[in-house]
Amino acid sequence: MTTAAPAPKANMGQPIPRYDAVAKVTGTAQYAADMPLRDPAYAYLVTSAIAKGRVDNFDLSEAQKVRGVVDIVTHENAEHLEPAKFFSNGGYASTTNQPLRSPDIAEEGQIIAVVLADTYEAAREAAHRVKVSYTAATPTASFHSPGTVAARAKGQLAMFKDDPKVGDFDKAFEEAEVQISAEYETPPQHHNPMELFATSVAWNGDSLTIYEPSQFVHGLKNGVATQLGIDPDRVHVVNPYVGGAFGSKGSMTPRTAIMASISRRLRRPVKLVATRDQGFNVSTYRAETRHRVELGATSDGKLTALRHEGWEISSRADAYCVGGTKTTTRLYDCPNVDSLVWIVRADRNTPGFMRSPPEVPYLFALESAMDELAYQLKMDPIELRRVNDTNREPIGGKPYTSRSLMACFDEGAKAFGWAERNREPRSMADGEWLIGYGCATTCYPTQMAPAAARVRLRRDGRVRVEIAGHEIGNGAYTVIAQAAATRLEVPVEKVTVVIGDSDLPPAPVAGGSNSTASTCSTVMMVCDQVRQRLLKALMPNEGQTVGQTPSGGASRSDQRLDLDREAAFDALGVSVIEEYGEWKPDGAPADSFRAMHNGQVRMVGGPEFGGRIAYAFGADFVEVRVNRFTHEIRVPRVLGAFAAGHIMNPRSARSQLMGGLIWGVASSLHEATELDERYARYVNDNLADYLVPVNADIPDVEVILLSEEDTQINPAGVKGLGELGNVGTNAAVCNAIFHATGQRIRRLPVRLEKIEV
Ligand code: MOS
Fold it and tell me: Which of 57, 384, 391, 727 is deepest in the core (most CB within 10 A)?
């Protein structure tokens, strides 16, 4: 495995080092809890020990004796905030279970009190001395629990449009020469970003500043303003760096408005850093899912029938749903498709986005079933995908804007040495280690949302770009600087990028892998406005269109337009030019810009992209070794080949995809939040017991970036790849385990006790 940055291929930018690399490795990057506050009160959360019931009484006498305690806030004395609307029903909130409103408890770990003190230590000490008496009811924890309620996802939330179907599945399945029917399960998982769920707040008169790691500063600003009943422009959210998020920091959690209201009452800044274990409950997570996949095919592998039924856990309060059948029903050519998604309500905290929310569980099921079908057909699994490859999705017959799935399989297979594989299960070994090779498709919808930017160019070539994007580890600073440098023909070192601040022109949530496509398309457009002014100054008689670039796919980094910048500035007689602009993707609704300014996201793309369908694709390859005596499972190598349109920066793209592949292995072999079903309680709520892989777990991770050009998606030509890497890997691991052992495992995670052969 090489650590060198990949050389750019056609339609790729330069692999420049990360803009924020030095700040991060030298510790000068400031995260929310690092922001200086004057004389803050430190907050410590007291959370519920029961999942269902009520608080009967607080005994605060021992807690109040701790020196330095300033206040203890419970439902009995908390300010009543305005209700928070759920994000998928047009609001901003990750949950509508608002703590501190009543003695009622609806989830384990619910915030029931907040202790404020002059020091963190005093707040923590006092919090541990708060005595709570409860009346506990028996909670329902998960699918198996008596009392859980299942209902169709359709109609319960605006984000879930429909259960896709086409043709006559029942008839086609019954008549199919080959049939597969199998059930799959994925466990609850928690994102656990390195940076904890911190919130610092400070009031200056009636203006509020919030330092909080957020994937969506404009959403948080508007959401908190709504809950506090104040003008959104009185709220300023600042987070130049976010120490990992993966979806957990995408929507507003209850803690922010609670801290703001306490701070307003105390007339003092408040600083909260929720502990790691509290983070399992005060934010979101990936809930457990179940699936039934039925495939019918001809004896030469052509799919004739495909059905995917999914069940997902959500809270009593909210119908959260990832609903991945919108992807799995469209991935392969098949004339008869059916699907159905259920939401199962339990006494749990509301789940939410976690990296590739729909695709990770749903493609685990489909890509495992495809492998099962390949074995039943005695067919190579790559050939099975080739036979069913398509340039038109089967549900609506819409064309893919581009689709390099088989090119990814072919390049990946070659680099991996797939041809050396003996197809028979349990046929390859090295001493006591059974060897298995597995592969799977990965894909992720190409999504975009409206954004605005301000660009300032100086005569000496210095550029300042302002856009409320988010650096969540995705390389946002770097690619935005590259976009501006390319369009304005200046060295990238001359570009200053300012993001992570709600006073900047709005950008969408850094979620759904839309950031690079949305922010770079916007910044390029505004840079073109600057260019237009310069070119007009140079050629006043040539009219408006001089130097104008085509609207699609105009991002080629090798495209030089030879701008004589200094001459243009001299002709204009100014030293600085500034432009502001708002960009929206094709097919964005009419209210897009208004919504954008209100912190609402009008995302388009994927299967909902007008008359087209837009996805990035890849192929994952995994080698596993299973010890025939101890059943220990090792993964010596993982390889992914990906095509995602224009690659802004092959270095940061590779890092994103590599992280994704590692996470994909983690989601199959390591990660699971263990649930004590008696109490609906997370057990391993710490990084010692919640397993994640380390370097020695996957010695060799290889990423291959394919050259791909797509002129139909957005001006940057970018498909996005933040969530592409960790899709399908879980299936590839299980497919490899089947090849090694002959045992098919359909329930994640795969631990050695599940190997029975
Ligand atoms: Mo992602 S789960 O869209 O932050």
Answer: 727
